[in-house]
Design goal:
alpha+beta; about 25% strand; eight-stranded antiparallel sheet; single chain
Amino acid sequence: MELSRTEDSSQFYWGFISGFILGWAMNLLLFGLVMRYWFLDDATKRVYSPSSSSVSPKLKATLDRKRELIQSVEKNFKNQNAPLSISDVEVLSKTLYGLSEHSAESTDWLNVVFAQIISKYRNDLLMNNLFTSALNKALNTDTKTSLLGAITLTDISFGQEFPLLKDVIIKHKKDSSSVYAEITVEYNDRITVAFDTSLLIGARGVNFAALPISLALSFVKFVGKITLELEATTADPSIFFSVQPEYDLDFEINSLVGHRSKLKDVPKFASMIIYNLKSVFQTHFVSPQGKRFKLPRIDKLFVGLSSPDTSSSTEANTSSSASAPTANYDASLSRDDGKEIEKSLDSVVTEVKDA
């Protein structure tokens, strides 16, 4: 009797465990099928393969439309016999600079100059595919993580507005004898880079599924103070650029994740990308960090300017000086005088530093 009860209980437990495992297996299988056919795409599906000289068809069509718009506006503007070009009119209007009523002694003229330069480069970038091809190639280098598939540019926008310098003031740097320029900058625009890629799912180099991702990164706002400092005390003069900690930097992230069913603008995904972008900016540009741009040295500007005629005349002067001891004596006197002058200058600098 007890033996039959033991057998019945073992059969009951075995049935429960097998049913539990079978139920979970069915749930996992159902979940996998939903993910595979609703969200994931085929990893072996052929996609656009970027190269150094190719641009995706979607991006090419977008750039063609922008080029046609610029060319049509310029053509219509020229037909009106306007005294200013379309680029200059756009720059003056967007920098709030009036030629007839604007007063002097302001930095608005500098805004106009910068806006003209930016406008020129924007039009040049739109009129050819060199930048987009280079960026497309840079996104698909060998250093790219193996978890991502091919990255294809789908849209790029260089913005329409211009940065405005609100005010400039020269300040004395603390604990230093140098001065720096502090510039208040405001820039509200939308500079966008959009691309398509996929998150490869697999193991040991074998991918059995891919999660398509469409991403658009947009810079929208910067308000803050930047500093420019000339560092002329070093051997190589340079300009040090940095951003003061009190700044406002905003990005916008638009995303689509999935194949047939897409998740739009996932908040956690967007916040993670924005956090990393701001961290990189904080690490490389915010004071006391910054970027140093070297200026050309005067002695290096004249390197290579000597011609063969100059070298031959120098050799002739050297040979003639061998037969003229007075000339050697005068040259030695000039070198000695130069050394004395150099020593006196060094002593003056040392006295100034001690003072």
